[in-house]
User: Which sequence fits this backbone?
């Protein structure tokens, strides 16, 4: 974990443009999705998100209406009260947690609502999902946020030149 984290901290910003260009070159290559998913398993076997939690500390999570309803019920609030207290609503109706670090992040990097966390949190950093080859900008951005994503992209570049 330490090596992956240190490498990410040292190189992610300087490698961003190269990573973005590489990820753009993968568009249309559906076979890359399987490689990314396999690397996701390999890398996350070595990465303990609780040692980092940078995603929770730096990026407000998107929250779907069903997420909001589920979390509100878990917290004993109405959906309306939950949205008012914890979320921001964008002009298009999309919802996100109202601050960074996340309101629900504990000091030890655990999540107060882990069992009912938003879908976006459950799926982050989206490296094991079908469609990896289509999300070049998001994946490149995630290399700046998530050490595991940076490592996955680094390894992809080594095997899919």
Assistant:
């Amino acid at each position: 974990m330490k090596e992956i984290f240190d490498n990410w901290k040292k190189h992610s910003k300087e490698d961003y443009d190269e990573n973005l260009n590489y990820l753009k070159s993968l568009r249309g290559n559906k076979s890359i999705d399987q490689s990314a998913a396999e690397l996701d398993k390999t890398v996350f076997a070595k990465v303990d998100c609780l040692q980092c939690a940078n995603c929770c500390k730096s990026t407000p999570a998107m929250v779907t209406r069903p997420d909001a309803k589920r979390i509100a019920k878990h917290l004993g609030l109405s959906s309306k009260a939950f949205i008012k207290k914890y979320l921001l609503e964008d002009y298009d109706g999309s919802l996100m947690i109202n601050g960074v670090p996340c309101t629900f992040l504990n000091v030890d990097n655990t999540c107060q609502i882990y069992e009912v966390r938003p879908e976006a949190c459950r799926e982050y950093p989206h490296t094991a999902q079908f469609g990896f080859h289509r999300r070049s900008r998001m994946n490149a951005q995630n290399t700046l946020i998530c050490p595991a994503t940076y490592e996955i992209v680094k390894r992809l570049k080594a095997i899919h030149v």
